[in-house]
C-alpha cells in the first residue's frame, strides 16, 4: 500500500462532500493546526538577500514581499501513510467514531499538474530557509527572481514539523494556490469505519458509497485484535 494515503474524518456534511463533490480542500499554511509550523521569517529572508552583491534595499523588500505573498497563498492537504494508526483515529476521527478514506496518491497528484507530494520531516529545530534561494540565480541586472517564484522552493518549510508529531506519519500534497481540488473517482480506493462508528451517519455514508461511481471502493470495519493493542480491518459488503 505504498501508493496509499489516508484521510481521517469525523462524520459531517463537509466529510460527506469529499465524496459527493469529489474534491479535497487545500488549506492556507496559516490555517494548519500547529502554530509552530509553516512559519515565514521575513527578517531571516532579508538577511540572506542582503548578502548578494548589488542587492538594493528596494529589491530586498520587493523579493521578500513576493516570497511571503507566494508562500501565504499555497494550498496544503494533509494525509497519513498509516490507516492502523490508533492515535490518528482518536485525534482526527472523533475517538474512533468517524471514518478513514484511502486515496491513490498517484491519481491525486495527476489531478493537478503542479502538485507536489512531501513526506513530513520531524525534528526539534525550525527548518532552514536555504531552500528558498537554492533554485534561483540572483542576477541584479536581469532581476531573475521577481515574478518567477516556484512553489517548490517552500518545501522545507511546508514539510517540517516538531518531533512530537511524528506519530502522524504525514504526507502533504502542495499546490501553488489554496483551492478545492477535484479528483477522479478512481482516486478513492477504500473507506474504513471506526471501531465506534454507528448510527444514522454510518447509514448516510454507506448510501453514498452505493452510488455507481464508488462500486470499486472497498469498505472496511475496524475491530480490535484480541489480546493486542492493535486494529484490523475486515471488508464488508454494502
Write a short abstract of this structure:
With 238 residues, this protein is α+β, with helices and mostly antiparallel strands. Helix content is 26%, strand content 26%.
What does the model show?
It is a single chain. The protein is an alpha+beta fold and 238 residues long. It has one domain (4-236). The protein is built from 8 helices and 12 strands. It has helices at residues 13-20, 42-50, 57-72, 86-92, 105-109, 131-134, 155-158, 200-209; strands spanning 4-9, 23-26, 75-80, 99-104, 116-119, 121-123, 160-162, 170-175, 179-182, 188-193, 218-224, 231-236. It has a 5-stranded mixed beta sheet with strand order 1-4-10-11-12. β10, α8 (200-209) and β11 form a beta-alpha-beta unit. α2 packs across α3. The chain is elongated, with a radius of gyration of 21 Å. It starts with a strand and ends with a strand. 24% of the residues are buried. Mean pLDDT is 90; it is low at 139-144.
Describe the protein's topology.
Blueprint: E1 4-9, H1 13-20, E2 23-26, H2 42-50, H3 57-72, E3 75-80, H4 86-92, E4 99-104, H5 105-109, E5 116-119, E6 121-123, H6 131-134, H7 155-158, E7 160-162, E8 170-175, E9 179-182, E10 188-193, H8 200-209, E11 218-224, E12 231-236
Parallel strand pairs: 6-7, 10-11
Antiparallel strand pairs: 1-4, 2-9, 3-8, 4-10, 5-8, 11-12
Question: What is the chain-wise order of helices and strands?
Answer: EHEHHEHEHEEHHEEEEHEE
Total number of helical segments?
8
**Widest beta sheet: strand line-up:** 1-4-10-11-12
**Helical residue percent band:** 25-40%
Overall tally of domains: 1
Please state the CA-atom Rg, rounded to the nearest Å.
Answer: 21 Å
The shape, in one word, is elongated
Structural class: alpha+beta
Largest sheet: 5 strands, mixed
End-to-end distance? 23 Å
Report the mean per-residue pLDDT as an integer.
90
Query: Total strand count, please?
Result: 12
Flag low-confidence runs.
139-144
Assembly level? single chain
